[in-house]
Each structure stands twice: as C-alpha cells, then as structure tokens.
Write a structure and sequence with these properties.
The complex is a heterodimer of chains A (about 270) and B (about 220). Chain A is α/β, with parallel strands linked by helices. Chain A contains nine helices and eleven strands. The N and C termini of chain A lie close together (about 10 Å). Classes of the chains: A alpha/beta (about 270), B alpha/beta (about 220). Bound molecules: flavin-adenine dinucleotide and iron/sulfur cluster (3 copies).
Chain lengths: ~270, ~220
C-alpha cells in the first residue's frame, strides 16, 4: 500500500547519526530543552552560514507561532518544543522578503519540511522563497494533537490544569508536561487525540531534511543526510557549540522501529480514506 | 547529445509560454524550439511541452495535439490550463469569438499526458530542474506528484476543501496558504478556508498540500 521506498528505508537516506547535546559555548536555560538544535543554529549564525532562522516561538499559553530569528539571542528564545503544527502563512513570505534574508535555516515537522523541500526542488511560484533556504531541519514526529481534548484529559486524569503547564517535552515514547511539577504520559495513551491527518502521515524523521532530530530516551539524536550538513555539525562540535558522539546500532534500531510503526499506521488509515 | 524540447501553445494567455521562453534561454543542454517564434515542423522530440487548454470545437487543434503526442517520447502539460483546466474552467460561453460552455478542456481530454505541471504560470525556475531530471536520469520523488496530476481533469482550492478540510485530514500546516498566487486561501479558526471569488483553479495549493499530494499519488499511481 505504501510506496516501496518507505519500507526499504524507513529513515530515508543518511550519511551519519549522532547523540548530540549543547556544548558549553551556549547557555540555554529551558526546562524542556536539551538545546542541541538551538546550539547548532547559533553556530550557523555566528559563522555566517545562515542569516536567519525560521522556527517556532511560544506565543501565549501553550500556543506557538512561527517567527523569523536573526540573532543568537532571538534563536535562543525559540528553544523548546511547541506541540502543534504551526502554519506557514503569507506573513512569513512577507517577513522573509522585507527582512531580505537570503540564507535561512528552517526548523519544522516532517510534513512541513517535506513541503519546503518540494518548493525548493520545484518552485512553482515566482514568489517562492526557496532559493533563500539553505538548511532544512526536521524534528521527529509521531503526530500532533487536538489540543483542547488533550488538555481536558490531562486535567481529569492527572489533575494538571492547562494554566499550570509551562513546557511540553515530546520524546520518542513519552510526553512530559512541565510546570511546578512534571507529569509524564506514555505517547500511546494519548493516541486517540491525534489529528486524523497525522494518522495518514508516513514520515517519522523527516526524510527530506538536511538534518533530522529527535529526543530518544533523554538524549537528542541527529540524523545527518548529506556531506555539507555533516561538515557543519563536525565544525560546530570542534568549536564547542555542541558535543556529538557516535550513536549505537541499538538506538538506531529503536528509531527505525518507531518509523516502521508510523508507516504501518499510515497504510492502514490511508486504505480507509481512499 | 542535446535533448530536443518542442513547445506548442494551444491558446492560453501566453503566461506559460513566456515562462518557458525565459527558462529555456539559459538551458544549454537542450535544443529548444517553440512554435511561438517560428513555424517549425513537428519532428520526433524527446520532450514536447504543451501550454494552454484544448478547444474541443477546433478539429485542427485536436489533430495537432494527437500528432504532438505521436512524435513525443515524453509529453508534458505545462501550466494550469493545459494540465487541470485552470481559469478556463470558468468559461461560460457567449464571449467573442464565442467558445461554448465547457468548450475548453485540459489536454488530457484528448491525449495521454506523462506529466502535468499546474501553476499559473509555473515559474521559470522550476523548469530547469524538471528538464534536468531527464538529462541526468535522476528523478526526484516529487515528480510523482506531476505524474499523478495527469489523471485528473480539475484541481483547485475547491477540491482541497472537499478532499482535505471536509474529510478532516488537514493538519493546519499552511502550505496551501503560502502557495496560493491569488490569496484565495486564508485561515479561519485554525483551518484554511477558500475565498471562492478569488480561486482561479490553478491547482497549486493541491499539489503543495502534504496530504493532498499524498492522496493524488496513492489514488492514481499505486
Ligand atoms: C510536535 C512535536 C512532536 C515531536 N515528536 C517527537 C517524537 O515522536 N519523537 C522524538 O524523538 N522527538 C520528537 N520531537 C522532537 C523533540 O521533542 C525535540 O524537539 C528535538 O529532539 C529537538 O530537541 P533539542 O533540545 O535539540 O531542541 P531545541 O534546541 O529546544 O530546539 C528546538 C527547535 O525546534 C523548534 N520547534 C519547536 N517546536 C516546533 C514546532 N511545533 N514547529 C516548528 N518548529 C518547532 C524550536 O523553535 C527550536 O528551534 C517532537 C517535537 C515536536 C515539536
Ligand atoms: S505526524 Fe506528520 S502530518 Fe502530523 S504533525 Fe507530524 S509530520 Fe506533520
Ligand atoms: S485556492 Fe489558490 S492555489 Fe488553490 S486553486 Fe485556487 S487560486 Fe490556485
Ligand atoms: S496544505 Fe493541506 S494540510 Fe496544510 S493547511 Fe492546507 S489543506 Fe491543511
């Protein structure tokens, strides 16, 4: 039912994979964040590899919004996970034009990175800003939620009110709601609140990215998909922005297993929709 | 050997033709001929690109289209009118010189098409990588979307609403909004909504939506 290449390579093409943490060059104080991506983005901006980042920032409450960050401080303020798909809108296009950004990195979920890669490969519109995108970073994703229902579930089952939740940390098998106290809920317990559109999505790691990243058993993992990205990651490591170490085969297998689960789920639901 | 690329416009607004001419001016790997600039014979061609819709009341045009198909290794419907009807889907007849209601069709009404590229017009920047794929033999997965699009005769914001929003499989990513050339899509209550008067039925939002493009491929290619 799914394109054959999905099952042949559930994690897509890649050249290397690492455990990564922020190095001591960058101070990131966010409960929910290992800060590896943030630290890497800081390296890219400090060394002129990029002139801006499109990432997600906390707006009000648990809501997030897509923003353009041009300085290290602005990048650091976007650290941590927003737990929704945040829409690209015309405002983003306008900002990119107005600020005259020409070498951007974009962080997004696999569906968004897939769209951006499509736009970059085949810019159908004159106004597509695809040639300004230098770097696509995908977060791993097993699905996003219908927020209202999940918040009322957490309140009922765990007694934690929406207003108490300050940060949400999503890892491979758990979601942690962080405030004065922490509530950790297995991902699968919340599956019934997933957006239907996500049930059709076959891409766990974001195969169209330059670098894909997730949080597996309390450590950030990065899957590096081409030589340019690999070189930059190594330089960031040498200059103490991040610390990288080779990942074990066993950890990679666990990520692959999760990716295959997502492909099977998509196959099943796609058959129902068609 | 250079790739022979032949272009014929069936009577569109010429936006697509201009996009092609702009792109081809810098493609040194191709031997490009357009009927727009000379009355070239139709020979055997590696790639034939057709822009504009086909008028069902013009037998010569229909014969021309069939001949182009016969002589092409790969035939591409270029732009919204040729591929999915585009703005001509709104033709109601009565205009001078009097095309009748539904006289215009995308070219797949008459011939088999290998790739259909929506866009009003598709930007010149997308043409080089597309043609290059045939030169290098390295086809991007995204080309599957354009292959699947050959199987439909309409594609628009209306279809996006029907297939994605109303089926509740929209994930609110906003790709459609970012991709609409006329600003016909906007967010209402966290989901895209169509301003019907602004939709020119170009199909861009549909092929750009992560869910809709996936549906297209699964429905028509797998
Ligand atoms: C909705 C969601 C689901 C996830 N699901 C999984 C999963 O199933 N398995 C797994 O291993 N990892 C998952 N992750 C990734 C994981 O939670 C971490 O974000 C990732 O490992 C990066 O960690 P970090 O500490 O290096 O990031 P940080 O240094 O904190 O940087 C994170 C970057 O991501 C950006 N960002 C955060 N949220 C969003 C968003 N919603 N849209 C766009 N950009 C955003 C931030 O602006 C920041 O630039 C998910 C993340 C999100 C947002
Ligand atoms: S599961 Fe897929 S569609 Fe849903 S948010 Fe994640 S990447 Fe996007
Ligand atoms: S909504 Fe916009 S992109 Fe979609 S078909 Fe209509 S005009 Fe084209
Ligand atoms: S592109 Fe598709 S999934 Fe994304 S917001 Fe538009 S309709 Fe929804």
């Amino acid at each position: 039912m799914m394109p054959s290449w999905y099952l042949e390579k559930p994690l897509g093409e890649y050249v290397a994979a690492y455990n990564v943490e922020a190095g001591n060059k960058i101070q990131i104080e966010k409960a929910a964040s290992g800060g590896a991506i943030t630290a890497f983005l800081c390296y890219l901006i400090d060394h002129g590899a990029i002139d801006g980042v499109i990432a997600a920032k906390k707006a009000k409450g648990l809501e997030g919004e897509i923003v353009v960050a041009r300085t290290k401080e602005e990048i650091i303020s976007t650290a941590g996970s927003r737990w929704q798909v945040l829409p690209f809108t015309l405002k983003l296009k306008e900002t990119v034009e107005k600020e005259n950004l020409n070498k951007m990195a974009i962080v997004g979920l696999p569906c968004q990175v897939n769209f951006l890669r499509q736009m970059k490969t085949f810019p159908l519109l004159e106004t597509d800003f695809s040639n300004r995108i230098k770097f696509l970073i995908s977060l791993f994703c097993f699905g996003t939620f219908a927020q209202e229902s999940i918040l009322s579930y957490i309140k009922e089952k765990y007694g934690m009110k929406a207003s108490e939740i300050k940060e949400v940390k999503i890892s491979q098998r758990e979601i942690k709601f962080i405030g004065e106290r922490e509530v950790e809920v297995p991902f699968d317990e919340l599956s019934k609140y997933l957006q239907v559109g996500c049930l059709l999505c076959p891409d766990y790691t974001g195969i169209a990215s330059d670098i894909s990243t997730g949080f597996v058993e309390d450590k950030t993992v990065m899957i590096v998909r081409n030589e340019v990205a690999e070189k930059m990651l190594r330089e960031a490591h040498e200059m103490n922005y991040i610390k990288i170490e080779e990942i074990t085969q066993e950890r990679m297998e666990r990520i692959e297993k999760r990716a295959i689960e997502k492909i099977s789920r998509a196959s099943k639901y796609m058959a129902q929709i068609l | 050997m250079k790739l022979s690329v032949f272009h014929v416009d069936m009577g569109g607004c010429e936006g697509c033709s201009v996009a092609l001419l702009r792109a081809m001016a810098t493609m040194e790997t191709c031997d490009f001929k357009s009927r727009l600039v000379g009355d070239f014979e139709i020979e055997k061609n590696d790639i034939v690109m057709v822009s504009g819709p086909i008028c069902l009341n013009e037998p010569e045009k229909i014969e021309l289209l069939k001949e182009l198909r016969e002589k092409a290794s790969v035939l591409i419907a270029f732009g919204s009118c040729a591929s999915v009807g585009g703005i001509t889907r709104y033709c109601r007849g009565g205009q001078q010189p009097k095309p009748h209601h539904m006289t215009f069709q995308p070219i797949n009404a008459i011939i088999d098409v290998d790739y259909a590229i929506p866009g009003c017009p598709p930007s010149p920047r997308m043409i080089n990588p597309f043609i290059n794929a045939f030169i290098t033999g390295k086809q991007s997965n995204y080309m599957q979307i354009f292959k699947a699009t050959t199987k439909v005769k309409k594609l628009s914001g209306f279809d996006l609403i029907d297939d994605i929003i109303l089926q509740n499989i929209c994930i609110s990513c906003g790709a459609c909004i970012l991709s609409c050339p006329t600003g016909a899509m906007h967010m209402v209550g966290g989901k895209p909504d169509l301003i019907v008067e602004k939709c020119i039925r170009c199909g861009t939002c549909y092929v750009r939506c992560p869910r809709a493009s996936q549906l297209l491929i699964r429905r028509y290619l797998k």
